[in-house]
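Illustration: Putative ribosome-binding factor A, mitochondrial.
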Amino acid sequence: MFHKFQSTSSLLIRSNIKMLKCNASSLDGKMMNKVMGFSRKTKKVWYKPNVTTNPTFEELMKQTTKNNAGRQTNKRVAILNKLLMKNLTDLMATGENSEKLIGYGLEISKVCIAGDYKSVKVYWLAGKSEDDSKLDELLHMLSGPLRHELSVLRIMGEVPRIQFIKDRTYANVAAVDRLLNKADFGEDFVPTCNTLLNNHPTIFTNIDPEIKKKIKELEDSENLTEESNEEVIIPEMKMDVMGLDHSAIMTRLNMAIQKSKAPHRQPNAVHNVIKNTVPEQTEETQYLSFTDFVKKRKIQEAKSLGRRRSRLIEREMYDKDISFQYEEEEDDNIDEYPFKIDN
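Result:
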């Protein structure tokens, strides 16, 4: 009996599973298939698509910063640093806001642009001002106007933010100089200049007095010879070395050069002469052609006047003939058809 029950239960389960598979089109069937593990669909793996579009400026900047840039970017950064240094100093010296910076002794030591081109660090120091807090605030206020003036100059596409940073190394040196100027070294102190100090090596050994005397004599003799050499007049250099008279050769060469530079031997001068003569000939020919044209014009006008006069005379003669013929015809008609007048 137990075996029969197991067989019947297994058949029922299989039939139910088949029914679920048949009804997989419905939502419930899909959910049961997922729970029971009958879904044959494999899990899809997502892969990053290969984008063929051009990368943006920010992505390029990130790539260059990750790869520690290259030679081209390093050159570009160095060139931009020089350009920004030059233009910033010019604007701060002669720009619209230059009057506000007078009296502080402001100096710019270095300009560094960031690798991502988003900020510019400008290192400065002030030699005259003791309290740099006011100058720091003033520079912070002027960073915006200076950025605008740089953008007008079109040095680069987008001018980054300007950050003014105090240069600590030069500031410390300037502070030490100020303290040394204020320090009191006592009444017996004699200030010396470092450039006037003798840096020649000295020998700290005991020398015999005789040797010292000889050394002094040699130094005195050297000083005397130097003074005497200064007074000696140096003779003129000889020009007949190796038996050749160089002065005569040079005079001949100079004469030949002067002859070659004569105006009649220069091709440009000849061209100028030709250019000057050609216009004179053309002017003469133009004058003659103009006179001929005037004569021909007068002849044509005289001919035209004669033709007009002849035409007028012919016309008058023709009119007279016509009028005479017309009068004769009228007289004939009157004779042929006389009128009777009744009283």
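Reading the tokens back as a structure: The beta strands are 106-113, 119-126, 161-166.
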